[in-house]
C-alpha cells in the first residue's frame, strides 16, 4: 500500500495509508538523547506508541537507518517503515 506524507506541523509529518492507518513522524533533536552526531532523528508513532526510529548520520556520505521497535502484533510492519522512510526527504 502507498503512504501519503503530508506536512503536519513544525515538529514533524503525518503519514496516511488508504485503509485509514496513520503514523505521526516527529523530528527530534539529537542533543540530549545520547544520539549526537546524527543529522536527522525521527520517531514514528502509531496510536500513541513508539513504533520506529529513522536516523541519518552527519557525514559527507550519510547512511539512513530505519529501526523497527514495535511488537509484531501491530497492523503495521517493517515494509511500511521502509515505504515511509523512502518517502521522507532526509
Topology record:
Layout: E1 3-9, E2 12-17, E3 22-27, E4 38-46, E5 49-57, E6 64-68, H1 78-87
Antiparallel strand pairs: 1-2, 2-3, 3-4, 4-5, 5-6
Structural summary, described in words:
There is one protein chain. By secondary structure, this protein is mostly beta strands. The chain has one domain. It has one helix and six strands; from the N terminus they run ββββββα. A six-stranded antiparallel β-sheet has the order 1-2-3-4-5-6, covered by helices on one side. The radius of gyration is 13 Å and the shape is globular. The mean pLDDT is 81.
Strand content: over 45%
Order of helices and strands: EEEEEEH
Number of domains: 1
Q: Work out the helix count.
A: 1
Helix content: 10-25%
Number of strands: 6
List key phrases describing it.
1 helix, 6 strands, globular
Summed up:
The chain has 90 residues and is mainly β. It contains one helix and six strands; from the N terminus they run ββββββα.
